[in-house]
Amino acid sequence: MIRINLLPYRAVRKKENIRKQLSIYALSVLLVVLLLAGIFLNQRSKLNLLVNNMKSKKKELASYSGTTKKIAELKKKIESTQTKLDVIKKLEKNKTGPVLLLDEISQTVPKEKLWLQSLQEKSGILSLKGSAMDNETLSLFMKNLEKAEHIRSVDLKSAKSKTLSNYKLSIIDFMLSCKIYSYKEKEKKKNKSRRRR
To answer: What is this structure's pTM?
Structure first.
């Protein structure tokens, strides 16, 4: 009978299997390393793009900082100009208001029957002192004042009869108190503040 020794063949086969397994393992490790390197390079390129984008945005933002300062300066100038315009409007209103009031008072005075001696305005209250020929003239003057646009109300504070012996006349010295247009504005402001509460 012939005997064949298969031991070296089995050892060679085992070595080949080990080599195959090692080469598969090495190839799989190499593939994983290549895959990780590809992912790393891809992420790095994205990061570089983002960094470059951020730098360009910072430069763009820095270029706008001068414009932002100019806009802030323009806003301050606009506010300043608006404040000046408001002051001018207020001054014009205050300038024309007393002129209109005096014009209205002069139109309400009955001619040659009533004389004004003094006129004072304080905090929206107008005080008038004068003399009238009779009670009817004084009453007419008060009615005319109440119809005036810039006068809100008229109150008689005092009325005294006086005789002028040199002229043989009797006249009435009077004192009136009137609420005027500026008093009306203050009332409106108070009413608005009450409504807000």
So the answer is: 0.46
